[in-house]
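Table S2 (text version). Query chain:
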Amino acid sequence: MIMGAVGLSQSAMGGTSINPEDPDPALEDEEIYLWADGSDNNGQNPEYRPKIKIYYPTVRDKDATKKFAAVLICPGGGYHIQASHEGQPFARLLAMNGIIGIVLTYRVFPDRYPGSYSDACRAIRYLRKNASNYNIDPDRIGIMGFSAGGHLASTVATQPDLYKDMHDDLAESISARPNRLILGYPVISFIDDYAHTGSAKALLGDEPDQEMARQLSNNHQVTRDNPPVFLFHTTEDKGVPPQNSLSFAEACIENNVPVELHLYETGTHGVGMALDNPRLKTWSGLMIDWLSAWKS
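Corresponding structure-token output:
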């Protein structure tokens, strides 16, 4: 159950509430590299060799036959780094609420598009292909992203077949489209007045090709096939203006895609769980509520 407004839950092992930022080895399990040793797809920065790390609900050990919903998490960082506070804490939060949380490490600058996109698509395809090994329901795999990670997540959700990596042996047979999309203060546009030029340059170069910049402006790529969406942003966000979330929500409405948008008055960019802000920290509990019917 949800404890208060922060999205904390009771542990499946003893009923004590847990802070998802505290260590809990029971929620950790496997780390899996997405590409073979020696592959060019491992990128130029060894710190960001593409991989996934899986955090399981503790109840998984008690019922080996149960299939869980899973969410792949893409931390933000402007396609230059990946913010740790937007990864592991959310994987733990999801695991404590009965959802398998999976943190994606993806390629960043100096690696450019389609590196990060290929990593995220590969991760979803791998999880779907091997779902039975991880107690995952292959029809309940979502993706979550923050800031530039939100751009990555929304690109995969709106355009899962935009590029198929020749080294991905699952690309022709397994879909990369997620079943749910969760976005926290996401970068959405590279071309509109509120575009995030820093992410665009990191991904596409100092002088981005305008056709590709439009292709990767995901408010222009929503279709009726888009998965249901949860969006969270603040009106005080100067790093990535809230118009990014507003335009994406509007595109969802125009295409009859289920969407839930939470726009808060206060809060700077990159707040993560915002546990130090009494009003803003309610957003993660609302997200868990939104996922509650889907995860069952």
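Notes on Table S2: The chain has one domain: 2-295. The chain has seven helices and ten strands.
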